[in-house]
Amino acid sequence: MFRFEREQLIYGIHNVRVGGQPGQLPPVMVGSIFYSGHKVVEDERVGLFDRKRAEELLRLEEEYSRTTGLPRIIDVVGNYSTALVKYIDFIADVVEDPFLLDGITAQVRIEALKHVKEVGLARRVVYNSIAATYEAAEVEALKDSGVKTAVLQVLNMRNPTVQGRLEVLRDTGRGRGLISVAKEAGVDQLLVDTSVLDTADIGVASQTIYEVKRETGLPSGCGPANAMSPWKQLRKFEPEVLRSCDVVSQAFPLTMGANFILYGPVSNARHVYPACALVAAYIAYSMRFQGVRPLTQEHPLFKVIR
Question: Which end of the chain is more exposed for a tag (fewer CB within 10 A), N or C?
């Protein structure tokens, strides 16, 4: 493994720490709930859902988080503001962990930001996300909300290379980068999502994680799950093969320094957590020989290896 020369930032988000050198902190797992098509959702417009089943899924994930040593952030997805507000209130009530405010449009997110400010949840919220297509109203709503943590999505469709994605973060002659935009919005804890486009792109997104951390020191990660479901070739094989390939794709970015993984539906926790915990333990053990040691006794190195 490798040690970055630049200082690697560590952020505290409610009860979760994220960032640092490889091997210092376990990667944070981000599973999604209430996404479009999720079976627990009964009416996505008004936010009607199967509360009992949703609690079961979250409890199961919590158990995998506890036994593997991988902390979690809940990705709360909503297509309509009324529904997203209800989902947020539910999550805030049944779990202690931070959560992503993940509305499908800027307007949905803006309405949800108003709510989290009113009910005092801003410190538990991670805004998802500030992208190159951000709207001015988003910036103002973020600034007013008191939310201090946001995901920066470095998607660059005109230039989807590693350098193209890095350009989205930087100020250039063509405009401000996302780091500057986030600072204007009052956000001081930045998580960089290197934006997986398709199955083959997981390698490029992972390399971008390395470069983002090398250049900026910001906690970085990606969402490999977004690229696995469209992989038609894999459907030729047995479900067990699909599952194996999925967990490989989730764990691979960790070898490039990823601090968080957006692993898809929260129901996949039982497969993804153990695989990522094992890779995180391998990394932490190898980093001991470079003078880097885990900052917590809850690290997977002590949970799944010893």
Answer: C
Whether residue 230 has pLDDT greater than 90: no
pLDDT digits (tens, 9 = 90+) for 251-264: 999 999 999 999 99
Give the integer Cα–Cα distance in Å for 222 and 208.
Answer: 10
Instruction: Compute the average pLDDT of residues 58-86.
Output: 98
Residue 154 contacts residue 208 (beta carbons within 8 Å): yes
User: Residue 169, SS3?
Assistant: helix
* Three-state DSSP class for residue 234: helix
- Please, what is the Cα angle at 290 between 288 and 293, to 5 degrees? 35
* 81-94 helix and 51-68 helix, angle to the nearest 10 degrees: 50
Query: Using CB atoms within 10 A of its CB, is residue 60 exposed (0-12), middle (13-18) or buried (19+)?
Result: middle
Across residues 244-248, what is the average pLDDT?
90
Confidence of residue 185 (pLDDT cuts 50, 70, 90): very high
Greater model confidence, 134 or 306? 134
* pLDDT confidence of residue 237: 74
DSSP 51-92: HHHHHHHHHHHHHHHHHHT--EEEEEEESSHHHHHHHHHHHH
Q: What is the phi-psi region of residue 14: left when phi exceeds 0, alpha when psi lies from -120 to 50, beta otherwise?
A: left
Residues forming beta bridges with residue 261, ordered by sequence position: 29, 222
Q: Which domains does the chain have, with CATH numbers?
A: 10-299 (3.20.20.20)
